[in-house]
Design brief:
Elements: E1 18-22, H1 27-38, E2 42-47, H2 50-62, E3 67-71, H3 77-91, E4 96-99, H4 114-142, E5 146-151, H5 164-183, E6 189-196, H6 202-208, H7 212-219, H8 229-239, E7 251-254, H9 258-263, H10 274-283
Parallel strand pairs: 1-2, 1-4, 2-3, 4-5, 5-6, 6-7
Helix pairs in contact: 1-8, 3-4, 4-5
The structure holds coenzyme A (COA).
The site of coenzyme A has 13 residues, from helix 4 and helix 6.
Length: 288
């Protein structure tokens, strides 16, 4: 397989975009901020902890990008409103949003407390609603067009055992993007989702891929590797750009075929040495 092109876009692809990224101080959110800035966007990163947000803004400014941050708890609509106000003072009107902030942990569903269910659903589902509504109201008021992208997950359409609050909330986010893609098309607002499979980040892997689970996850990917951040962020930049104006209400899966591997009865052969696989298959050929 060829290696990923880390900078495939023309300079200025995202010029004119001011993108607010939730959870933009760390992990994939930070990688999205760097990629979109390298394509000419102004970047606002928001999250609960000031330190990583400040560090990301410093890195963005080192690249020559215009960037700002606001501390914000996406679960709280008033906090979201103040964050938009703060970053718009410095950067001008926000016209794109990446709903990236998430919370997740592994837990048998019968053991979930009220607070545990709430913690994840409020970050993922309510947080996405609070931010999307805030941007939507501002764009509609200004008669401006804009873009919303939600980072869901490959199990948003299938559900997933042991991460029930996340699975339920991500399914809700997908329904939200699809509903609004129809409702807000008249305002020139596009809404899409990206459903990533496993991409390595401290936040997700320390919570979800503990011990043997990381090895098991790798076995479900036909190419036996996790995604590279650039592979995801290239897709993000494309989906927020003028290269894809007709794409709305869509959900693009980027998982190295992990999802379809898991659903294919004979996929296991793909992981065997091909000669050994062929021998096994010919051994079960019906006798003439
Ligand atoms: N298993 C079961 N319950 C858990 C849990 C786990 N692994 N982790 C947290 N909880 C429960 C807590 O016990 C608490 O419930 P309780 O009050 O009934 O005891 C509830 O969830 C809230 O936990 P708390 O830590 O107070 O919430 P928070 O708002 O500070 O944190 C989380 C939210 C739990 C989602 C936390 O993991 C987080 O902040 N995550 C953000 C980053 C992240 O998850 N990244 C990965 C994305 S893939």
């Amino acid at each position: 397989m060829t290696s990923v092109d880390r900078n495939p876009f023309r300079a200025g692809l995202l010029e004119g975009r001011t993108i607010l990224i939730t959870g933009g101080g760390t992990g994939l959110g930070r990688s999205m901020a760097l990629k979109c800035a390298s394509a000419g966007a102004k970047i606002a990163v928001v999250g609960r902890r000031e330190e990583p947000l400040k560090a990301t803004v410093a890195d963005l400014e080192k690249m020559g990008a215009r960037a700002d941050f606001a501390t914000c708890d996406v679960r709280d609509s008033a906090s979201v409103r103040s964050a938009f106000n703060k970053v718009e003072e410095g950067l001008g009107p926000v016209n794109a949003l990446i709903n990236n902030a998430a919370g997740n942990f592994l837990c048998a569903s019968e053991d979930l407390s009220d607070n545990a269910f709430d913690a994840v659903v409020k970050i993922v589902l309510y947080g996405t609603f609070n931010c999307t509504r805030e941007l939507g109201q501002r764009l509609i008021e200004r008669k401006a067009t804009g873009d919303v992208l939600a980072i869901v997950t490959s199990y948003a359409t299938t559900g997933s055992a042991f991460v029930l609050p996340s699975a339920a909330a991500k399914a809700g986010v997908l329904a939200m993007m699809r509903s609004l893609a129809v409702e807000w098309a008249t305002y020139g607002i596009r809404l899409n989702a990206i459903a990533p499979g496993p991409f390595k980040t401290e936040g997700a892997f320390s919570r979800l891929m503990v011990g043997e689970l990381e090895k098991q996850a790798l076995k479900r990917v036909p190419s036996r590797r996790f995604g590279d951040h650039d592979e995801l962020t290239n897709l993000v930049a494309y989906m927020l750009s003028d290269a894809s104006p007709y794409q709305t209400g869509d959900c693009v899966t980027i998982d190295g075929a992990e999802g379809i591997f898991s659903g294919q009865q004979f996929a296991g052969f793909a992981h065997l040495d091909r000669t050994a696989a062929k021998e096994m298959m010919s051994a079960v050929k019906p006798k003439k």
